[in-house]
Amino acid sequence: MGDVGKFNISQYDSEEMNENSGKGCSLYKVEMDDNSYVFKKRNPLERIYKNLRWAGFWLESTPYKEHKFIERAAEKGIAPKLKEKYKNGILMEYLEETKNLRDIYREDVLNDETDFGYLRKAVDVLKQAHDLNIRHGDAAIGNFIKKDDQVYLVDYEYSADLPKKSKRRTRNIAKDLFFLISSTKNNKAAKEVIYDEINSQYPSDISNKLAKYEKNPIFKIISKFIY
Fold first, then answer.
1. What is the pLDDT of residue 102?
2. Hey, CA dihedral for 72, 78, 84, 87, is it positive or negative?
3. What average pLDDT does this structure show over 145-160?
């Protein structure tokens, strides 16, 4: 997939998806060739924002290679498919009638087994990403979406290849899981479901590292700032 210059949104029937845009990007629904796509446009200050957000926390800087990880994850069926990459962003398939899992975990009470099932699937999807050697970098519950019974992991702008060395690999995987747990905030039911699934999907060394992160006062403060 080659770099074909900048994508000109004005050439197409497009609509800005304001509720899904972040500080580092803007999202647009684009109609092209009788199909719907999402164009993720990088904002000029994205790299500065990214570096400030992660400075002193993860201490790992990743070049913008989001398309690389989307392709890998989409091939496994855990991310929307990539259509094309451009200098100013990426074009991806648009999934109709999706729901963000953030909207599920914010409910005061989770007593629907279907809702619990989506949270379990989120952990399973993240585990599949790790099996593909992807460190997501921002695996908050808000970066998981569901369509029908399928759960997808999106937003790979902070992703990187998992290190091969055992200790660093364990540390990076535990950080992703720490993000997932932290992003549920005070929803105890959601946390319990996610913890159970983590313990069943991951080896004990990763669970132990995650437990250390959760007790770390600096990590607690920063996670509250981010989420």
1. 85
2. negative
3. 92
Tokens of 220: 């607690």
Question: What's the pTM?
Answer: 0.85
Task: Give the pLDDT of residue 189.
Answer: 81
Strand 13-16 and strand 25-32: the pairing is antiparallel
Write down the H helix ranges in 101-187. 102-105, 113-131, 166-182
> What is the C-alpha separation between 105 and 172, in angstroms, rounded?
24
The whole-angstrom separation of Cα 30 and Cα 38 is 6
What is the sign of the dihedral through the CA atoms of 195, 200, 201 and 207?
positive
User: Which 3 state secondary structure label does DSSP give 221?
Assistant: helix
Q: Which CATH superfamily, name and number, covers 99-226?
A: Transferase(Phosphotransferase) domain 1 (1.10.510.10)
70 SS3 class: helix
